[in-house]
């Protein structure tokens, strides 16, 4: 796409992921300063990083300095190599660089990595009046929000929190210690962002202070950062449920090499695992040779197991991520899924049996005339068995993975389907042997 | 679990989903008023509704009146039948009931259904000083937030927005019209909540005003409501990707009947669709009878197609939900997935071929001695074909669904896998015919 000097800020924002780096920079530089700042704000950290590095060196500094320290840390983390990171850090003023370096010590997905170190601090012995005028003096950018102020002692221990609302409605001569809330919900630096997001949800909070293990306050996380966290965590889980590794970047930004690295691993493992069903098929080769019509239904039977398994595992993985189901609830889940799996099996088995009767009366080879019904019953009962087994396996695998310390979302639909294939075949061919022995087999 | 008089508020919160209604009520009533209010706040709307209805009639009113109108509307919506809804509405005071009834006219998943009608209103000709003291007088509950105030004309048209921060830092004698921001990002009443959540993300806003088509302001949506929206939308999409309908309730709260209604539909359809692959197997029955060893690899081949298809569709469905990929990007996606699918096919095909050679040399029946290599090549090439085809079909189905007006998330892993099964068999058995014609076939 050629650079279009008429592209507005909104058009450029919409077209951004599809433009080449050169066209992005060219379009960006054609905007007015105000428009380009608005566009810059809508980009995510990785895009901001790429854009800054693509700008001429003389223009980089002002963009990097627009960012609050937590956002600047994200941008630095978005750089691909240490040289670029160092170059970005060098663009910052000295105090901000120190703050950013401190933030970079935290993992991206823990409370410390999300927090801003710029929060409004008050002393307990200040008057309400003094606190308000102190907060009024905080300039934009100096603190993340003035709506919540944190009351610290001389050693930076968190004593309480007070909202601007509480301050403006309190009598001006009171002390901050008299109006502050001391029962503060706070997060440890290393708290996982997913748990942190549940803390926000459970308590309907706008900001949560982050403290170290001695209770010293290090920063605040605000609810707008949590929106991104919830979205990211869901994306990661979905990518895993789909049988890939988390892409960790927007789809259009991942190159062919990156895609293959994230997508080929699981699929390759699954090809190898699927040889279990090749083995199962080989084991029943003699029965299949005798009653060839049984092979016709193999894709149907194993797909029923795979589909019910994918469904069950996805529901459980999501329920675990939402904290609706915990490890110790496995017994409740197993009883529930036993009932669901059996019911689904009976429904699907009935549909399968009836359709098989119709199919056989239309398309059956001559040699099994007179055995249509027993074959259809075999198909129906096998579907009951594999749907029940698929549901149980799919719902329990996330528990097994989590109890072993793995991510339950790795119990992807494709993994469950593949694992259930071989056992589904054994169920099918065992039932066939039992029903058809003495007649066809 | 028997009622335990020693259960603390946190313990009760953790155990909540597992307790019977009676035990929930008994535990709840044993808490102090303060603790029970804290617990009540952490429950979601459906749980609050069930709890209120389970309390003795005399105690219901005070709990319903604790709620802000938008939360009260959610609780009323959580009731199962019209009588319960009417009973809950009757617990409210008259002005709140009117507000709640107005909110109930909106769908739950649109901006109007999320907004609170209680926002802080200012007139443009007020002085900053008057505005601050007006905001100070707003009691807790009277408005959702005093940190953002909306400037309206006499007909309730939205003229601008001003933050408490802007007010406290402005000179007190100025007029509100001089300090307000007039370039306001607002949402239409009927805007879908998913689009609204992107608006919050793109502009990093704490609150967005909701207006009707004539620009009259109806309420505000705050970012903490958006956290729930993002979580809910992701949950719905995941349930669909797993091949179920969205449960629309936490897993432990859905009874057996509800589970079956949400889960049996898609699976039943898929059983019927899978008869396409039964037909495909029947069509090649003569070839399979001649070279029975070909049947052994059927589960392997179709699973490769299903797995690559599930993976591709999940990635595209999520990218669409995040607005990273739009309908008009289909051409970019098709080119990308063509390259990815072919590369994956070559990787998986090579693994499959090598493993098939090893497998055949260990387990092959005597009659195909001397043909191991050509069979392994057949398997390998078929995997290339089905992986490529699965990837293409999986990535394009979400586009087809969306362009027809359906939810792209309905392109679930199980649906894609089932659709790809029959065509995968045709690919496999066509390649087998081409390679083995004149030797085994």
Question: Can you describe this structure?
Answer:
- The structure is a homodimer of 441-residue chains.
- The first copy, chain A, is mostly helical and 441 residues long.
- Chain A is 64% helix and 6% strand.
- The first copy, chain A, has 21 helices and six strands.
- In chain A, helix 1 runs parallel beside helix 3, helix 6 crosses helix 8 and helix 18 packs across helix 21.
- Chain A is elongated.
- The model of chain A has no long low-confidence stretch (mean pLDDT 89).
- Chains A and B meet through helix 10, helix 11, helix 13, helix 14 and helix 15 of A and helix 10, helix 11, helix 13, helix 14 and helix 15 of B.
What key attributes describe this structure?
homodimer, 441 residues, mainly alpha, three-stranded mixed beta sheet, 64% helix, 6% strand
Chart the SSEs and their pairings.
The structure is a homodimer of 441-residue chains.
Chain A: H1 9-15, H2 21-30, H3 33-42, H4 45-54, H5 57-65, H6 69-78, H7 82-90, H8 94-104, H9 111-114, E1 120-122, H10 128-137, E2 148-152, E3 158-163, H11 164-169, H12 176-179, E4 187-188, H13 193-203, E5 207-211, E6 217-222, H14 223-241, H15 256-283, H16 285-290, H17 293-296, H18 298-321, H19 330-363, H20 372-403, H21 413-436
Parallel strand pairs in A: 1-2, 4-5
Antiparallel strand pairs in A: 2-3, 5-6
Helix pairs in contact in A: 1-3, 4-6, 6-7, 6-8, 13-14, 15-21, 18-20, 18-21, 19-20, 20-21
